[in-house]
Structure formats: C-alpha cells, structure tokens
DNA sequence: GCATGCAAGAACATCGGCGA
DNA sequence: TCGCCGATGTTCTTGCATGC
C-alpha cells in the first residue's frame, strides 16, 4: 500500500487535467494494484467473487458486471485515507459530479470524512484547475485552420471553420464595477468581498460551434465596394421561383397535417415527404461540436464594452498567412448585430484589419427573428376582448386550456408557437373538410380513390385547393418595387427634424405614415437613447398620435361584402403555415430555404416597422449576394444552425441553443445562492461545457452505466383536441363565405398581404442601405491602406 | 528535521426566499 | 416592507503532507 501511494505516476493520483480524465480506466488501477499490492488484490477478488462466477464470467461480481470498478473504488478509498492530498483522483471526480449536481457545503464535508469526496474547498480549487481548459478545443480548431491555410495540412478533417453565437443573458444576474475596498480604510482593507450589485446591465454569454458544411475550399477574397453597388435589387426580394418553392413547402406541410388528423388519409403518412432533402442533408444530420466559452462581464449597451467583447472574441480568430484575420461569423440578435456594427464603426480608424475588429462578421440569428414574427402575429390576431367569439385565438386558448399562452411571445415562445400550430392544424383540417364536403372527420369523401397512387393525387388535389384559398402572392408588390422608376428628387429623401437625407442605425419611426417629417428620425436629433424607444408604436408628436387615433375608417361597400370571419381564419392559417415552414427549414438546416424566407421577411419587417431588423436583414441578403467572400457566403447560408444531439430534422437555431446553455448556466449559478463574484460566475459558466465532458466520462467509464437509447418526445399529442376543435367549429361554417359577418374584436380583418408598403420608399431605402454598405467597405479598405 | 504549500475549519458578510 | 433562516463565498488560522 505504501508503494502504491509513493508511485508518482499512480493512476490513483489526483489533480488530473480534462484530457487525462478522458482516459480514465479501471483496468489501469487494477493492474497497478495487482503489481504493488498482490495480497490486498487477492483478498478483494476473493471477497467480491465466487469460484463459480470467476470460472464462468471472468472477474465478475455479478454475471454482467465486472468486479474491477468495485475493487478500484475500495482501493481508492484506502489510498485516500493514507494520502489524502495526493491519492484523491477518484474523490475529486466524485466531488465534481456532486458539485455539478448542486450539493451543499455540509454534504461535501460529511462525505469528505468518509473518504468518498474531497471537501468543498478542494472541489473548488480542482474545478478552477480544470476549467482553465474550457476553450482549449476552440484554440485547437484555430490552430488546425492556421495550419491548413499555411499548407501544412491538407486532410479532409479540416473542412470547415467555426462560428461564435453569443447573446446577453437577460436580467437575473448582472455585473457592475467592483466596490472599492481601498477607499473605506487606509490602515487595513476590510475583508470585503467583491460582490456584483444588481443593475440593469447584462453579461454576455457565448459558445463556439464547429461548422458542419465545408467552406474552406472556397475563396476568401473580399469583394470590392463596386461589387456591392451593383448587387441587383431583385436579390433582396422574393422571386417567382421563390414563390413556387414556398408553395411547395406549404403543400408539404399541409400534407403532413392532413395525414396526421384525417383518419381516411392516415395510411398515406408513409408515402409523404417528412424531411425535405437538400444537398447537405447528410451533414446536417451530424452532431455539432459545441464549446461554451463563458460569460463576459460586459454591458452591451455601451460601445466601449461591445468593443471589449469583440476584442475578447478576436482571440479565437485564426491568422491568415498574409497576416490578415481569417473572418469568422459572430451570430447575435438584431440589437446586438447593430451594436457590433457600431463597435466596428467606432474602430474604423484602425490601420489594420485587426484593429478595425474585422476578424468577425456580425450576423443575425434565426430564433429571435421567429420571436419577432410571432409577436407580430399575436399583436394582430390575439386580443383579450375576443374571448367569447368562437374561433378567435383567445377563445381557442381559453377553451383548450393553453394556460401558458400569453401575448408576450418572448416570455412564452414555446407555448405560443405550439398554440398557433394547434390553431393552424385545426383550421387546415376544417378547410379540408370544407373542400371535401365532409360533415365529420370520419366521413369518407365521395370521390376517394382505392389505389395508393390515386390517393396521393387526391391528397395533392385537396392540399392545392386549400392553398389556393390561403396563399398570398408577394409578386405584385415585388414587381411594383422593381418597376418603380420614378426619379428620386432629393427633397423626397429628406427625413427627421434636421431635414437631412442621411440615415444611420440609431433611428426611430413615427407610426403616422403621413408624418410631415418623412417618418424617420435620428435618435441623436431627438436627444433619445435606444432604450427610450417603446417596443410598439411611437409617434413623434401629439398631432401625429391624434391623427392616427382620430382617423376612423367608415364602413365601405367592400367591407359589407367581405366575410371577415373567414378572412380571420385564413389569416391564422397563413401565418401559422408560414411559421411552420420557417421552422421546418431550420430543423433541416436547409440554407437555401432559410435565406429565401429572409427575402420574404424583408417585406414583413418593412410592413411592421422593424427598422433594425430591416437593416440587418438587408445586411444578410447583401452578404449572401456578394458583399462578403464566397467562403462566408457559403457559411452564412449553410451553417446557420447547430445539431446538439444529432439526427435528421433535429437542427436548432444557434440562438435557441444559446438559450439552453444560458438556462443551464443560470441553474448552475443558482447554487451560489446569489453570492456572485467574478470567479464564481466564471466557474459556473465555464463548467457548463467542461462539466458535460466530465459527466459523460464519469457515466461511461467510472460508473459503467449504459444510457437508454429511447428518446422521449416533448411534443404533446393534440389529436383529441383537434376532434373537439372540429366539432366546436362545425356549426360556424367558417369557410363558407357569408358576406358581412365579422368578429367584434376584429371588425375589418382582411386576408391581404401588405397594407402599407410604399413601393418607392421601399426601393429608396434598399438603394440607400446598399450605398451605405459600399461606402463603409470603401472607408475600411482606405484606412487599412493608410 | 525543516520549510513550504495546500486543504480543512471557523468566523463573518451577504444574498434570496419566505412568512408575518 | 421587514426580519428570520438557511445558504454561499471569502478571509484567516491551523494542521498536515510533501519535498528537500
């Protein structure tokens, strides 16, 4: 035993790094024991096995279980008792598991006395030692790319770069400058800890994700500003072909709904398309490598702090052989992209690309966008006053008891999305019953064919008819925008109280579209901060506000002939189906479709006054159309999601994955009971990634556990609710046109695409933003030349 | 045998949750 | 809103293991 404890390279010795933990093996421990302490080894084997079991199963304490882990554990405890400071490998591993599980201090001390764990202090210092390697993996990727660029590696393993999504972790914990301890007592600094005070500031969290779609083979040449100026306007708008594709996607979604809920069509479920294939379907099903890179104590609303964040992330940017940065994508939400751009603008005077913070290309993420679009839908279709009107979203919410659905989508995104999906499914089924003249779900339509081929045709036919009812084409608007050749007299471009034509990212829009100042205002001119601008409508003056309110529309002849209830149902279906196709494209990581949806959404952002999203969407579409290098274009299209667990159709938006990491971190940091110091925050955030590695090693190699491969699904079954929905709505005959009827809460809802898009203003804005982008590129290049 | 470093224990400041 | 309770992190002290 003494020899065992003296051995410097003993597998029982503690203080191992994460890599060494990965090599944990009971076999080594057992061999060491057999060599150093043969008698003890024989005694333990004799105690734990029977002659019969050894004969039949080798060294087994039970038929399917080796005795080696048990022997290893016993010897670890013995060695720990003899030399607690060095022979504590097993105890340290146990302690980390218990720390990750949130055990209390007292528990650490008790089990430390029993020789099972190290104490809380030992655990903490061990954690601090291993967490120092939290981003080693990212640096490994960086080195691989540098080597590849230098031509030192040519193997296919280095095919893609990596991406850094980040987000502010919204509210709960916060950071501020530390209280100054020196000021309070010059003699002896009081034993004052550096706690973070609750402020409105938000720390930022990020992770690195290895790209799955290869991009390194593509050119990394940055296009010239002239190239940006000549990007055709068509590239920003949905084309006729896009509309055909969208209709195909919507048809596929309708097929799925009908086969799920209409009994006679259920046998066709195997024949329809559940995964729309694309050129990278195989790669997209692969599991992503994700490395959380901790929390930064920065306040994003300050430009200087945003610069610090970008500088911090620049340490992960690989170096090209010519000394230039190898640009990586930095994914963030709309506001953060703007702030990132502002930070880069603030550094535009730098004489190298590094000083200009050009190593990171800001990019807008998907989940926040879906939140925004869903919020618009809820703003339009979900009103508390409609609780008694059968068929409205609020009534359906109450009737089917979707308690967690709220009008604030950010707070209850999953519930809201699931609820809209439910309402959409219900209306699609109703529409199908209307088309097929079915009285109940179990009816068999008159013309239902016998063979599967013909049944598929039948399904296509029904879906086509449903889509004819609901589909809205953007082409009239697009053509109008593209054909608008009116010359732009300078006066028409004047905006804001300063009457200039200059636009900058910090602007606010007056909700009165007839505003005499042109609608747009510089925040600087108004003396406002970004935070002062409300989420909903904003008016520049009382006159504008009253103008908006006072303008009551009189009922027209057209209103009296419109069936507003049917329009409401069609609108819910249209919005719901569109949300579904967007999610489906993301789940499949179908970059082409995702970008196509952005083109449709640019019009939505304009319609709903989201200037920031309009700007970043424009930036994304410009990049895809040639404002960035071909490598980044490809990466922006195809590396927009991550697949945390692997499997087809299981991709997640990068920012949604960020929310999961964020949640994990918040739950972990809760164990600190509010005692948040810099070290504590770093420990908890960095252990999110490292802890997972150690956890899986512990599970597999230490505890010899086999994880169940059966995966549970969290999607609730809504079949009975749909049946209920259909029977409730059957008396309403919602899809039979009845002129003049309407919901009181939605008196004038019509199923048209856009009400407020002014073709010339839209066009002008596109051209202006494109010009600004080109100018910005030109200045960047000039500064580097100087 | 001694110097050094580390871990455990004790004491204290502080925080969040809960109930009055 | 306030006080209590139970929890944590930090600092200081003590004692032990380790290495020379």
TrEMBL record:
Q: Which ranges form a coiled coil?
A: none
Q: Name one Pfam family in it.
A: DUF6589
**TM helices/strands, residue ranges:** none
State one molecular function term (GO). zinc ion binding
Zinc finger PHD-type domain span? 495-544
Q: Key word Zinc-finger present in the record?
A: yes
Please give the InterPro entries that the UniProt record associates with this protein: DUF6589, Znf_FYVE_PHD, Znf_PHD, Znf_RING/FYVE/PHD
Sorted UniProt keywords: Metal-binding, Zinc, Zinc-finger
Q: Under which name does UniProt file this protein?
A: Zinc finger PHD-type domain-containing protein
